[in-house]
Amino acid sequence: MNIQSFLINTNTKSLTIDFNNGQSACLPFEYLRVFTPSANKPTKQQSLVTHKKDVVLTAIENLGKHGFRFIFDDQHNAIYSTKYIALLVTEQNDRWQHYLTNLKASGHSREAMINITQL
Fold first, then answer.
1. φ and ψ at 98, to 5 degrees?
2. Looking at the domain assignment, is residue 114 inside a domain?
3. Sign of the four-CA dihedral 96, 100, 105, 111
4. Which of 6, 22, 62, 88 is least enclosed, having the fewest CB within 10 Å?
């Protein structure tokens, strides 16, 4: 599956992805940020990304065969391969439920740590 286009919607805080096979998917910014490739590399101590409910995807840069750099307003950016994006689409429900379970068990929150007001 190759990606044909992206649509960043800051009103709904979601990214619509159109694939060249006619399929499309809509992923929340928070989901994309929580499952950033750099946060999901196997390590001895897997870190839980928290407090990202209000994060905004501000830009996407095409990096050719390497994928796409997603840039978020919390100063985080990461390279998402086409294969990884497709995986996030197909596993969205399972990944999200697992994340919410782990978040609750950890005692952390999805809410931002500080109040953010957009002018």
1. -65, -40
2. no
3. positive
4. 22
CATH number, domain of 64, equals 3.30.2020.30
What predicted TM-score, i.e. pTM, was given to this entire model? 0.87
Q: How many domains does the chain have?
A: 1
90 belongs to a structural domain:
yes
**Strand residues in 46-94 grouped as ranges (E):** 57-62, 68-72, 77-80
Look up the domain containing 88 and give its range.
Answer: 3-106
Cβ–Cβ under 8 Å, residues 54 and 37: no
75-91 pLDDT, tens digit per residue, is 999 999 999 999 999 99
* 19 lies in some domain: yes
DSSP secondary structure code for residue 84 in this structure: H
Q: In Å, what is the CA distance from 34 to each residue of 23, 39, 48? A: 24, 8, 8
